[in-house]
Fold these 2 entries.
Entry 1:
Amino acid sequence: MASLPNDPIGSDYVIDQGWSRYNAADHAIWRDLFLRQSAMLPGGACEEFMQGLTGLGVVADEIPKFDDLNAILEPATNWTIVAVPGLVPDDIFFNHLANRRFPATNWIRRRDQMDYLQEPDIFHDVFGHVPILMNPVFADYLQAYGRGGMKALRLGALPLLARLYWYTVEFGLIKTDQGLRIYGAGIVSSRGESRYCLEDGKPARIGFDLSRIMRTRYRIDDFQEVYFVIDNFDQLFDATAPDFTPLYEQVRGFPELAPSDTVPGDSLIKLAR
Ligand code: HBI
Ligand code: FE
């Protein structure tokens, strides 16, 4: 079906990045965000993220052009970045992921939003999410998540599946021989939380457990009170490969957990001191 003549977006919400419309102030905001987050990356972000960032050639100088990123990303893992105007409806979002397209917001935050903003902007989406898509296993995981999302919508299970996205794609930690490292985009793009999640004694860090994650509410207005830690990306992909239909039923039979709750069976990970 053809889109309406006055519909500038299209049914998939994809727009042109409009790179030439960024001004010097926009590029300067990108640069300042990039520089302060880069300072945290050594000893903070996981190796897969670092390799992705370097491999993509994302730098401080200016807001990246999606076409340039795609020229590297697509041959690497068959993902592409498409520009969208902001949050898109769930079904649209999942359809993009299921087709290995990452919808990235095309606008950048204002100076007074350097530390916090409620919606994703291009810095969160490109600096936070895209580098890890250079990793083949994570790339397959995010596609599987998109397929699972379309199914969860049909089953009325989106709130449960959204917790998996939150506690992995956005706020995931990974165990390495050098200690805990970050792979979640929400952390890696946040100045405060990138230190807090690895160093602060307050939040719990719990070994990855799919049904435990689906029972756990999350907060969007403050640093997390719990992080879930994977051993490696294969664990993430393998755990989420099966059909979730019976799991949703099982999880609905258990009480929900607050982010601050711990329960018997949690594998609590202590910080090395
Ligand atoms: N749209 N652009 C964009 N980015 C997201 O992360 C996003 C979205 N729409 C819906 C959505 N996320 C949620 O469905 C998931 O986080 C579960
Ligand atoms: Fe995000």
Entry 2:
Amino acid sequence: MKYGKDTICVQGDYRPKNGDPRVLPLYQSTTYSYDTPEQLAFLFDSPKSGHIYSRISNPTVSALENKVTMLEGGVGAMATSSGMAATTLAVMTVCEGGDNIISLSTIYGGTYNLFNVTLKKYGIECRFVTPDSTDEDIEKLIDGKTKMIFAETVANPAMVALDFDRFARICKKHKLLFVVDNTLATPCLVRPFEHGANVIVHSTTKYMDGHAAAVGGLIVDGGNFEFDQNERYKDFYTPDESYHGVKYIEEGGAAAYILKARMQYMRDLGTSMSPFNAYLTNIGLETLHLRMARHSENALAVSRALALDPNVEWVKYPGLENDKYHDIASRYFKGGYSGMVVFGVKGGRAKAEQFIKNLKLIKQVTHIADVRSCVLHPASTTHRQLSDSDLVACGITDNLVRLSVGIENKEDIINDVLSALSAL
Ligand code: PLP
């Protein structure tokens, strides 16, 4: 039986048997007990058939992975300790020292730093492109060591909506993996696999949890990439000596990527999601469809009010008809444009900071995608480690305010925002 997206959000694939708990149980256990050494040995050979140790898998975490796999329409998923861990592992699963990746520069500042500084120290180079780069500009950067193109569905906080068709076309032409961070849209609004993505990463810390209760991440495998005999990805069809000679495409089939991520990199780096965080995130997911609709409705109303305010220099929200990315976003977003709005306060950094101080209902936090509306000045906080040129690359100006619109009454949110602006 194939269920709709809302039913999957609520129930996933957890089906209690007679007398079982109705709510997905929290299995707060690191280990699993087996009667014979042969049974455990079998699991080491066939890790998909049971749980061995919670660094590798856990029943509560698996239920969350299955739910998101179903929502995204993939073939498997792996939960991680954070969104940053998900992106790191997503890259490491295909890259080693000497390889390179291509990424849009308009991405979350933490990811930008990971690509621009940290991975570079391990010999993985990131070649950045901008949303305005031509196909030719991008294709010039691709060589035999290029392993993926990375982008966000809608960039945090530059609000650039991804032109999936264009990047999917380039990836297909060069037989490259297309990896998309779908954190801000969630599968309730955009389903990247339907538009050519091969791997999706999430910070579940954001809308999936939605209650600012649990840090986490996820990698989802689309099962739609041909690794076999593609010279760039020979680790997928040659034996992994560190795992008794397994060939990932033989063992994992369509889910080879996520099997390799788990058996090689989760095994060695151990950035697993805790069962308790999976339990909390699953409860969040039960209402994701309702929340995304309401976040979107409220954000559109707030962005329209901001666009009319004399203290506002510009507003970026892909749901606004005159937004630069409205047409692109409208091709892929279904049922709303998510909850984040960014705008420039007239008068520069000082006025932007004063606006934040003037707010009463909306609190300043280093977070987005919470049920509670929240605000931040990225140039002085999340992006303060970036140089001026890096700030420009990420699409950030010093008067930019990032507003994550919550699910309170929209009139109250608008009131708070407009009062704080008029008090400037
Ligand atoms: N991706 C996006 C789009 C984000 O906004 C964030 C964090 O804000 C991350 C990834 C990193 O996620 P986490 O904070 O869970 O490590």
